[in-house]
Design goal:
349 residues, 7 strands, Beta Polymerase, domain 2, nucleotidyltransferase activity, NT_2-5OAS_ClassI-CCAase, 12 helices, alpha+beta
C-alpha cells in the first residue's frame, strides 16, 4: 500500500557466526517473513480504518456550502474544520455516527448582543440553526442544537457547527481551568457557547491540542493516529461503551506517558496494540483527561459502562497475546484469523 511505517524488526543475513543456515535458518527466515505478514495486515488495517480521499472531500465540500450560507447573513471572519477530522483519527466509512466539527468565527462588533445577553449563547446557536433551515437545500434536513453546536444531519454523517468569538473579545468568557487564567491555551484561542446547565461562553483552543497531537504523531511515524483509528474501530465492532474522542485521548496519553517516563514504544503495530490494550482496563476505570486543559473526557460514563469496557479490554489483551504466540510459532494465518475475530472484518486475514 505504499506504507512507510517501520515494522521495528531488524535482521542480519547469513555469514560467519550466523545461525541462518540449513533447516534452522529456513525456519528463522520463514518465521520472520510470516511475522512481517502479520505486521503488514496491521498496517493495512490502521490505514484502511480511516476515511478515503473521496469521503474527506465530501466533508470538506459540505463545510464550504454551510460556510457560504452563513456568510450571506452573519459576520463570519473565518471557518475551518476542527477536531478528529483534521487529526486523521476519524474512522471510515462515513455513517450516521460520523461527526465532523466545523468552527465558525464570528465578528464580535456585529454580534455584541450575543456576547452581552444573558441567554446570548443559545440565541447565537438559534440564529445559526434558523439560517441553515431557511436555505431550501436544508428545509427537510434534521438541524438541531446540541449543547455548544448546531448539528446538521446528513444521511451518512453529521456536521457540527460551533460558533466562536476570539477569546480576547469576550471579557467574561470562562477559562477551562476553573477560571484561572494561568495559561495562554484559551487566551489566544476562542470562546464558544456552552448551554449545558448555566449558559456561558467558555474558552477553547483546538489548535493547541492539534499541534501537540501532530507533533507526537510525526515523532512516531503516524502511529498515534493509526493506533487511534484501530482502537476506535475495535470499540465500534465490539460495542465498547467508549466515545471516540475519549479513546483518542487515551491513546494520546499512552504515548505522552511513554515520553515522560522514558518507556519504549513498540515500533510494530502488533506489539504496540498489545502494550496499549494491556493498559486500557486501568484507563477506562480511571479518569481520562485531555492534554491541554486537563479536562475529564468521561463525564457520561456510568460505573457499569466502565466495567464493561474494562472487561472487553481484558478479553482483547488475551486475544492479542494468543495471536502473538501463534505468530512466533510461524502460524501466520491462524494469528491473523485470531486478530480478525477481535478487530472485526476490517482486519484482513
Amino acid at each position: 500500500m505504499g506504507n512507510t511505517h517501520r515494522t521495528g524488526n531488524t535482521y542480519s543475513g547469513g555469514g560467519r557466526g550466523s545461525t541462518n543456515t540449513g533447516q534452522i535458518g529456513n525456519t528463522i527466515r520463514n518465521t520472520i517473513r510470516e511475522g512481517d505478514e502479520v505486521d503488514e495486515s496491521y498496517r493495512d488495517f490502521a490505514e484502511d480504518s480511516g476515511l478515503t480521499d473521496r469521503q474527506g472531500e465530501t466533508i470538506s465540500n459540505r463545510r464550504d456550502v454551510l460556510e457560504e450560507i452563513l456568510r450571506a447573513e452573519l459576520g463570519v471572519h473565518d471557518s475551518r474544520l476542527i477536531g478528529s477530522f483534521t487529526r486523521r483519527t476519524v474512522t471510515g466509512p462515513l455513517t450516521e455516527e460520523t461527526d465532523a466539527d466545523m468552527m465558525v468565527v464570528l465578528d464580535a462588533q456585529e454580534h455584541r448582543h450575543w456576547i452581552e445577553q444573558e441567554n446570548g449563547p443559545r440565541n447565537c446557536l438559534q440564529a445559526i440553526k434558523r439560517r441553515i433551515k431557511s436555505d431550501p437545500r436544508f428545509s427537510e434536513t434534521d438541524v438541531k442544537i446540541d449543547q455548544n453546536a448546531v448539528q446538521v444531519k446528513y444521511h451518512d454523517s453529521t456536521v457540527e457547527i460551533v460558533p466562536a468569538f476570539r477569546y480576547s473579545e469576550v471579557p467574561h468568557a470562562e477559562h477551562p481551568r476553573d477560571g484561572l487564567n494561568l495559561f495562554n491555551d484559551a487566551s489566544d484561542g476562542y470562546a464558544i457557547p456552552d448551554t449545558h446547565g448555566q449558559e456561558s461562553w467558555i474558552g477553547t483552543n483546538p489548535r493547541a491540542y492539534k499541534q501537540r497531537f501532530d507533533a507526537r504523531n510525526e515523532a512516531h511515524d503516524g502511529r498515534v493516529a493509526g493506533l487511534t483509528r484501530m482502537m476506535k474501530k475495535w470499540s465500534e465492532n465490539n460495542d465498547v461503551p467508549t466515545k471516540g474522542y475519549a479513546m483518542e485521548v487515551m491513546v494520546y496519553n499512552y504515548f505522552a506517558e511513554k515520553a515522560e517516563t522514558g518507556g519504549t514504544v513498540p515500533e510494530n503495530y502488533h506489539d504496540l496494540a498489545r502494550d496499549f490494550v494491556d493498559s486500557l482496563p486501568e484507563r477506562v476505570r480511571g479518569t481520562p483527561r485531555e492534554p491541554v486543559y486537563d479536562g475529564a473526557v468521561d463525564n457520561n460514563w456510568s460505573s457499569e459502562e466502565r466495567q464493561e469496557a474494562a472487561e472487553k479490554a481484558k478479553r482483547a489483551a488475551q486475544t492479542l497475546e494468543e495471536a502473538k504466540k501463534l505468530k512466533e510459532q510461524g502460524r501466520t494465518q491462524a494469528a491473523k484469523e485470531k486478530l480478525r475475530e477481535e478487530y472485526g472484518e476490517g482486519f484482513q486475514d
